[in-house]
């Protein structure tokens, strides 16, 4: 009897061991990765949608935007870093030359510049993004507005250690910085690195093309001596940028600048003084053209929640396609129709 019980116990233990061995060998493999998933989720870096471009990125969505004033005088071209801006505004400064207000959030160029001075209407643009504004001096009205409004800003005149001069160019067209220096300055000055970003609308289905009239080539005349333009590249679904009839390239990369969305709007301009400083009405409303995927839509614009927004004939805000956006602001005289040609 005792021998039989021992034998049965040995058999039971052997069976259990074999069962455990079988379980180890037959552990099911993980299910296949679902379409659209990326390995970043398993690496602890979940993807997020950049609020100013609508593109999936792996950077913090809450960190603060930066607006840099970038020179567009002939001796300042080609510039560096405009290719990495989420949004670029091109607006007249003094004379017949425009200046760029480049909004950085989802990408970080190696170099930004040449950096130039600021004006009140550029401050209005930057304030809509709660951006830290980077500049080299400014008009008396702009400097007073920055000071009295308590805006977060970085002025090279008083903070040269966060900038550098390029010896291959002459001042004032040789001042540069980068986001590493800018964010270091923000920390030194106690500026929060978390900002309040606006909500921008993006198309529900990027595979759907916009409805409008053909516009594969766009020319914008600001003044008699300055013009810029865009040509649509259907393969890349972007508008390649031109300045004075030549490809507008980034100095650092050598690549031609391009935009997914191009908006041209007219605003009231008024010359204030003998130096040619201007007052520009960025409240609106006014007329606008929206260029996307080789098509133009006529629109109206107005500033809502601090941001210039465009609206279709039905009154709904026109959504953007995922990617960067360039906004060209032209004077109301001679106006949008006379300043912009497209075909």
Automatic annotation (TrEMBL):
InterPro entries: DUF3048_C, DUF3048_N, YerB-like_sf. It comes from the Bacteria. Coiled coil: none annotated. Residues 35-45 have a biased composition (Low complexity). Residues 52-191, 218-327 form the DUF3048 domain. Residues 1-22 form the signal peptide. Residues 25-45 are annotated as: Disordered. PROSITE patterns: PROKAR_LIPOPROTEIN (PS51257). It holds the Pfam family DUF3048. The gene is yerB. This is Putative lipoprotein YerB. Keywords: Lipoprotein, Signal.
